[in-house]
Design a protein that fits this description.
This protein is α/β, with parallel strands linked by helices. It is globular. The longest helix has 21 residues, at about 125-145. It has helices at about 25-35, 45-50, 55-65, 80-85, 100-110, 125-145; strands at about 10-15, 40-45, 70-75, 115-120. The protein contains six helices and four strands, in the order E-H-E-H-H-E-H-H-E-H.
Length: about 150
């Protein structure tokens, strides 16, 4: 972070299943210990669904939001389906059984206003088609969120 600071770059700690920072909570805990305004946490939806509990989404977001520097989303199945091996964890934004609107509404409710990126890792097939679908889904989600 000290090396990045002169360049105006912030460091977002990225959680990834099976890694040292496996959970969002790990990133938040480390960001708190570092106690620098330019170090925070990333929330990656697909990795959270692999190791987190959907029933704890709102309490987790409430605790994490003050430290979140970025969020990534994607179409995905619910966590139980993914953990059982029957779900598809990274899809275009319009796919899957997970309630993306509910997730984004919870982020909005918690006051998160930072960047939200699209996770596309490993999606097979025509990338332009997937991106077109995801952009259309994003626009619909934003309309629903704006409408309340």
């Amino acid at each position: 972070a000290g090396m990045a600071q002169p360049h105006g770059v912030r460091v977002a700690l990225y959680h990834h299943r099976s890694d040292w920072l496996e959970r969002v909570e790990d990133c938040v805990r480390l960001a708190r210990k570092v106690a620098r305004p330019d170090v925070g946490a990333m929330f990656n939806l697909c990795h959270w669904l692999r190791v987190g509990e959907e029933s704890q989404m709102k309490p987790l977001l409430k605790a994490a939001t003050p430290h979140l520097l970025a969020v990534t989303v994607n179409g995905t199945d619910r966590g139980a389906e993914i953990k059982s091996g029957k779900g598809n964890w990274i899809q275009p934004l319009d796919g899957g059984s997970f309630d993306i609107h509910g997730f984004l509404a919870a982020l909005q409710e918690m006051g998160y206003d930072g960047p939200i990126g699209l996770q596309c890792y490993g999606i097979r097939g025509d990338a332009r088609l997937h991106l077109t679908r995801s952009i259309a889904a994003w626009r619909k989600l934003r309309e629903r969120l704006s409408a309340g």
